[in-house]
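in:
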């Protein structure tokens, strides 16, 4: 087992990537490690030509993934848009791993991100000693991706300022990065492209300019359509993460995870699954990713402090921590949900008692 807390996609699934590339005889775009069809197989699961099983990395609409991959085979950048927890970063990472062999060309966009972190920076010791020169230039992941013809990822694009966002316009439209200090430019090599992610729940934080929007093809990643689909995703990810963290073995927890997902979906949608009762919504997103976090935390609690099985007591504090972001509004919503839904639902009395004890 690796000492790294989290390995990259290309390291975890190296065997699958090698098998898919080796048996892939279809046309590959320049500098791609495999064909677009093989990339889709890597994301959605299947088998390599030699029979190597390929795990699904994304569970959802196949057409969305095909559109995303096809976009990256053109000169148009890709924007993965969706509410929190819809696997935008996860899909971005795996697309980069399959296409370029590395998902580590990454720029995390924040309010403090400036142009130097997008375009290029300077080694100021060299700059002061010799003036502007190629040796004094500090390339960013974007510049390196352009030079080598690979994918670069920009996480949470709308989190950085609009003026900084617009530094991408020339790169995305002209495929060149001017370096006026050296009277030169970096021209993108074939295979270069950008995958950006953005949270549409944060709309209005730093809106993309119309000029920048036109440079992206947008793929909207939706929340799982059904309880069974979402529960299946959470069960798989909890199992994968818990195993990678070497948490103590526990009994299968599919039923308890289904309860987490049911609770999250009902509070997220503002109604019970059967549509018969309206509920107060909470301020948090209660996304699939948060359900996964609750499951992993409950596993750790059950394994280290419990009886070796995820139960209501292991779930309670973790559920409250995920739901109650606003101490007033969310507490009221959860209390009403407990009294009106959980207390009367068959087989949920243990969860009602456990959550009441920590709320």
């Amino acid at each position: 087992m690796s000492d790294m807390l989290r390995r990259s996609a290309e390291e975890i699934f190296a065997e699958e990537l090698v098998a898919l590339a080796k048996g892939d005889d279809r046309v590959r775009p320049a500098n791609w490690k495999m064909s677009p069809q093989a990339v889709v197989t890597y994301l959605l699961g299947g088998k390599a030509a030699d029979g190597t099983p390929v795990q699904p990395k994304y569970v959802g609409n196949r057409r969305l993934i095909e559109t995303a991959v096809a976009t990256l085979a053109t000169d148009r950048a890709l924007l993965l848009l969706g509410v929190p927890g819809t696997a935008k970063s996860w899909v971005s990472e795996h697309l980069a791993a399959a296409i370029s062999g590395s998902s580590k060309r990454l720029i995390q966009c924040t309010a403090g991100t400036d142009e130097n972190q997008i375009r290029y920076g300077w080694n100021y010791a060299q700059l002061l000693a010799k003036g502007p020169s190629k040796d004094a230039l500090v390339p960013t992941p974007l510049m390196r991706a352009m030079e080598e013809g690979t994918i670069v990822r920009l996480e949470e694009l709308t989190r950085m300022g609009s003026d900084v966002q617009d530094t991408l316009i020339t790169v995305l439209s002209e495929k060149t990065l001017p370096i006026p200090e050296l009277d030169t430019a970096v021209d993108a090599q074939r295979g270069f492209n950008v995958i950006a992610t953005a949270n549409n729940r944060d709309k209005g934080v730093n809106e993309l300019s119309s000029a920048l929007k036109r440079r992206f093809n947008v793929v909207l990643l939706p929340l799982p359509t059904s309880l069974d689909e979402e529960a299946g995703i959470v069960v798989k990810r909890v199992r994968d993460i818990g195993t990678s963290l070497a948490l103590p073995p526990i009994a299968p927890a599919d039923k308890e995870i289904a309860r987490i997902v049911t609770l999250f979906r009902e509070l997220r949608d503002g109604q019970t699954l059967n549509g018969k009762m309206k509920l107060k919504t909470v301020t948090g997103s209660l996304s699939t990713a948060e359900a996964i976090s609750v499951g992993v935390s409950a596993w750790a609690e059950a394994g280290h402090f419990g009886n070796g099985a995820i139960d209501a007591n292991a779930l309670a504090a973790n559920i409250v921590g995920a739901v109650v972001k606003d101490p007033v509004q969310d507490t009221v919503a959860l209390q009403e949900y407990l009294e009106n839904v959980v207390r009367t639902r068959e087989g949920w009395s243990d969860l009602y008692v456990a959550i009441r004890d920590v709320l």
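note: The first helix runs from residue 9 to 12.
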